[in-house]
Design a protein that fits this description.
With 540 residues, the protein is an alpha/beta fold. It contains 23 helices and 16 strands.
Length: 540
């Protein structure tokens, strides 16, 4: 398999592609290459001399060949000359590179700073004559092409090369899951350090007012979101809600609606949710219901919210009768899963998120289970204070990306949970009953872990899977520090709540079980004795 650059940098003359590119390469312990230097080695003379002797068309042909070779044989940070992306052959090569997972970075410097640097650098054939006028004309031609060709856009206005390099590094190491489907507006889930920096970009220019909905424990992250929003020119209404499930009530939602009305929020304004799954659920519900729907962005701050609640477009609140019984399917404009927010996450809250991660492995992506097995001890020992920059960071980023891809697969085909999307509820029929009976003192991911064991026991009793797979559920989940049993209620209490489950049809129970890893099936109206026996087997 050919070696590919980690990033390819494009931009105007004087934008700092070489200087910033070298800083990025040094930060990432990677080699750096400049296309112009490589071309000079190839032709055996300086570029201005080659231009003078052979003309621009001949130069562009050599340039295209050199870039094509580097895109298939260089594993570092690669900077292109200002005119290279204007050549159709180079555009085609960059498009193929992006499709293969590459990052083409448009380095967007302040035009005045870039012009000044371009003049100082000298030796630029494209700036002969009135350099300022020539630069501006080229900028008008090239800027829209750069923007279209690149899949990463980094503004460096007023930043030092090192600061710009750190910003670029965060963005090129970011993972992106594109969520699409026939019945939804496309959106991206961005995963990485600094993902929250995309807030203004995702919200766009239309909103004037932003309702920033968050909980008190994530104040440091909501402070950062507020700063980014104000820098983007938005008016911010700060709305603090109770933590966890206590924030997901009609009373809390009504208080927010009153605030939005009093403060003149219109249909073109927007909502940003910062916090765990409960906060993003409520933020989405408010966005879905205010004036029949306004734009919203989720900034999840827990592992569970990153892999589950903030993506997929399920919004809702709880009622005294059950969890998420009132809600709406309403997709966000984007989800910004900023790994920096995990530094404040307590160990037990991180671990509960692994319940949803494992569930996604069981129903769709066995590689998730292999990663969990291989890194179980490190994951169980998660410490936010040492997380960033550790070997565990890339493991967690991959688990988040893979889990979100599983969710995106089901959501894209079935936004409103008419069939395929129900498979995401593996383990949830019992889990929601546990949460209700425990008055939501049990966290969702922990309840899901027990629910997955229950579903495995039920599937085994009815001949869908063997005992080894049931045992694997227990051993894997247990190795991660997740619970695999529960005895906080009677079967009759659980049964009554399972009949209220959203998958139930009339008086008939409906479960999701496996018939093998990665292959869930619907189980309609199973025998009552099997439902009860499976429950007995998960009691401590």
């Amino acid at each position: 398999m050919p070696t590919r650059p980690v990033a390819v940098i494009i931009g105007m003359m004087g934008a700092g592609k070489t200087r910033v590119g070298k800083e990025v390469a040094q930060l990432m312990s990677l080699p750096f290459a400049d296309a112009d230097v490589e071309i000079e080695h190839e032709v055996g003379m300086r570029i201005p001399e080659y231009f003078e002797r052979h003309g621009e068309p001949a130069f562009r042909e050599v340039e295209s060949e050199v870039i094509a070779g580097m895109l298939h044989g260089f594993g570092g940070v690669f900077a292109l000359g200002g005119g290279a992306p204007m050549t159709p052959a180079v555009q085609d090569d960059l498009k193929e590179y992006i499709e293969d997972g590459g990052k083409v970075v448009y380095l967007m410097a302040d035009p005045r700073e870039a012009m000044e640097r371009a003049h100082r650098g000298g030796g630029r054939p494209m700036l002969q004559g009135d350099a300022d006028a020539r630069w501006k004309k080229l900028y008008r031609q090239r800027d829209p092409v750069y923007y279209r060709v690149a899949n990463v856009h980094v503004e460096t206005y007023g930043q030092t090369p090192l600061a710009a390099a750190r910003k670029m590094m965060d963005m090129i190491t970011e993972r992106t899951v594109h969520v699409t489907g026939a019945t939804i507006e496309d959106y991206d889930v961005s995963i990485g350090e600094g993902a929250m920096n995309h807030l203004s970009e995702v919200l766009g220019p239309k909103p004037v007012r932003i309702a920033l909905i968050h909980t008190q424990p994530v104040q440091r992250h909501s402070d950062r979101a507020r700063t980014l929003l104000r820098q983007g020119g938005y008016q911010v209404s700060d709305i603090v809600i109770p933590d966890a499930e206590a924030g997901k009530t009609i009373e809390v939602a009504n208080g927010i609606w009153q605030r939005l009305g009093d403060e003149g929020f219109t249909r073109s304004d927007a909502v940003v949710g910062v916090g765990g799954g409960a906060a993003t659920d409520l933020a989405g519900f408010v966005a879905a219901t205010w004036m029949r729907g306004v734009r919203y962005v989720n900034c999840p701050t827990s592992l569970l919210a990153m892999v589950d609640a903030s993506t997929g477009g399920k919004t809702g609140i709880n009622t005294p009768q059950g969890k998420n019984l009132v809600g709406s399917f309403y997709t966000p404009a984007g989800v910004l899963a900023d790994l920096k927010t995990l530094v404040s996450l307590p160990n037990d809250i991180f671990i509960e998120g692994l319940g949803e991660v494992a569930k996604s492995g069981f129903i769709k992506d066995p590689e998730i289970l292999h990663i969990l097995e291989e890194h179980a001890a490190e994951l169980r020992a998660f410490d936010g204070a040492t997380f960033l920059g550790s070997g565990l960071e890339n493991v967690v980023a991959e688990l988040i990306e893979r889990t979100v891809r599983v969710k995106a697969y089901h959501v894209s085909a079935d936004l409103k949970e008419a069939g395929l999307r129900e498979f995401l509820n593996y383990g949830h029929t019992l889990a929601h009953a546990i949460e209700k009976l425990e008055h939501f003192r049990w966290r969702h991911g922990n309840a899901v872990a027990v629910g997955c064991v229950y579903a495995a026991e039920l599937g085994h009793l009815l001949g869908y899977i063997d005992q080894d797979l049931v045992d694997y559920h227990r051993s894997l989940l247990g190795s991660l520090g997740l619970p695999t049993s529960w005895n906080g209620g009677t079967f009759d209490e659980v049964l009554a709540l399972m009949h209220r489950d959203k998958k139930a049809r009339g008086n008939k129970l409906r479960f999701v079980v496996l018939d093998s890893i990665g292959h869930p099936v619907h189980l309609d109206d199973p025998p009552a004795d099997a439902v009860e026996e499976a429950f007995r087997r998960i009691q401590a």
